[in-house]
């Protein structure tokens, strides 16, 4: 991991992600790109007869000047004192600019704070974190609460043990190794998609035959809903982080089917690491592209 993108709006919600980014940077030697997005346009009230274009340009320059001072102060604060930080300012739509900047700065991971939403607000507005994990092509670590411990000991990876899981298991395993954490794989079974324990165990057995190099404990957990089950299991396992894949649904598909990953991000108190099952990955898999058998031999852990 060489580059970690950390979006900030200078709020307390954004600040909860800083410690996790610093922790990752400290373990990998990665550079943190501290990103602020000005979601203009900005305009200032002007007296009658004034040149509004000139006044608007002047106001924008003042806003930019103030923002540069603010992000520079944050960059040089004690929070980031032990890591290399590069600050950047972009202008545009926040979620779009985040994943565009991830490509621009060749980021390996996005670490961002999220306030979480619920009820009426959730159905209409969602959150920036939701939109980012829906579109980002790299792992996104969404953080809602301040870091409680400097050590990540247990990571729960919620999965259905499908072939898609094989696409992101190397990255999840790599991250757990960075933290020297125990990685647990678990499957939630609900009444909606109920299957017998025997069926699930056969599926898990088949999965491990194709992934023998990874040795992780597995669990089956029965719950009313998948997102609730993931959070409950993680709490019972005393996990420090939740990991899961998302299909990044858009439009009507997202409206009617929703996203388990987004539900977990919105409601979990633990940091949530998401991996997007992108079409290009599935196409590569369908073509039979072989992946190297070991992460240690593969320097590019983000596919």
Description:
The chain folds into two domains: 3-113, HUPs (Rossmann fold); 148-297, Rossmann fold, CATH 3.40.50. Helices cover 42% and strands 19% of the residues. It is built from twelve helices and ten strands. It has helices spanning 12-15, 18-28, 52-75, 94-104, 119-124, 128-135, 163-179, 197-209, 226-236, 251-257, 260-267, 279-286, and strands spanning 3-7, 31-38, 85-91, 109-113, 140-143, 154-158, 182-189, 218-222, 241-246, 272-276. It has a ten-stranded mixed sheet with strand order 3-2-1-4-5-10-9-6-7-8, with helices on both faces. Strand 7 (182-189), helix 8 and strand 8 form a beta-alpha-beta unit.
The CATH architecture of the largest domain can be given as 3-Layer(aba) Sandwich
**Overall number of structural domains:** 2
Q: What is the quaternary state of this protein?
A: single chain
Strand content: 15-25%
Largest sheet: 10 strands, mixed
Share of helical residues: 40-55%
What's the short version?
With 303 residues, this protein is of the alpha/beta class. It has helices at 12-15, 18-28, 52-75, 94-104, 119-124, 128-135, 163-179, 197-209, 226-236, 251-257, 260-267, 279-286, and strands at residues 3-7, 31-38, 85-91, 109-113, 140-143, 154-158, 182-189, 218-222, 241-246, 272-276.
Which labels suit this protein?
303 residues, alpha/beta, Rossmann fold, 2 domains, 10-stranded mixed beta sheet
Write the layout of secondary structure elements.
Blueprint: E1 3-7, H1 12-15, H2 18-28, E2 31-38, H3 52-75, E3 85-91, H4 94-104, E4 109-113, H5 119-124, H6 128-135, E5 140-143, E6 154-158, H7 163-179, E7 182-189, H8 197-209, E8 218-222, H9 226-236, E9 241-246, H10 251-257, H11 260-267, E10 272-276, H12 279-286
Parallel strand pairs: 1-2, 1-4, 2-3, 4-5, 6-7, 6-9, 7-8, 9-10
Antiparallel strand pairs: 5-10
Helix pairs in contact: 4-6, 6-11, 9-11
């Amino acid at each position: 991991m060489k580059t970690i993108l950390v979006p900030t709006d200078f709020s307390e919600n954004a600040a909860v992600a800083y410690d996790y980014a610093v922790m990752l940077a400290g373990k990998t030697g990665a550079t943190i790109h501290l990103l602020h997005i000005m979601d203009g346009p900005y305009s200032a009230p002007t007296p009658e007869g004034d040149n509004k274009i000139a006044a608007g340009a002047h106001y924008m320059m003042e806003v930019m000047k103030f923002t540069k001072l603010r992000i520079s102060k944050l960059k040089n604060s004690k929070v980031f004192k032990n890591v290399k930080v590069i600050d950047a300012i972009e202008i545009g739509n926040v979620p779009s600019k985040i994943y565009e900047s991830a490509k621009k700065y060749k980021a390996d991971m996005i670490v961002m704070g999220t306030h979480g939403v619920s009820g009426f607000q959730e159905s209409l507005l969602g959150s920036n974190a939701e939109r980012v994990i829906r579109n980002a092509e790299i792992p996104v670590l969404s953080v809602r609460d301040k870091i409680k411990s400097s050590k990540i000991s247990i990571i729960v990876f919620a999965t259905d043990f499908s072939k898609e899981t094989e696409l992101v298991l190397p990255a999840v395993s790599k991250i757990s190794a960075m933290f020297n954490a125990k990685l647990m794989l678990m499957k939630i079974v609900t009444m909606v998609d109920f299957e017998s324990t025997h069926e699930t165990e056969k599926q898990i057995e088949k999965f491990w035959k194709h992934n023998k190099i990874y040795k992780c404990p597995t669990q089956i957990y029965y719950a009313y809903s998948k997102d609730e089950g993931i959070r409950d299991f993680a709490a019972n396992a005393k996990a420090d982080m939740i990991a899961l894949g998302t299909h990044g649904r858009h439009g009507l598909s997202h409206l009617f089917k929703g996203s388990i990953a987004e539900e977990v991000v919105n409601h979990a108190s633990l940091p949530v690491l998401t991996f997007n099952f992108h079409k290009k990955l599935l196409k590569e898999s369908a073509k039979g592209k072989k992946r190297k058998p070991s992460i240690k031999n593969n320097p590019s852990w983000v596919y």
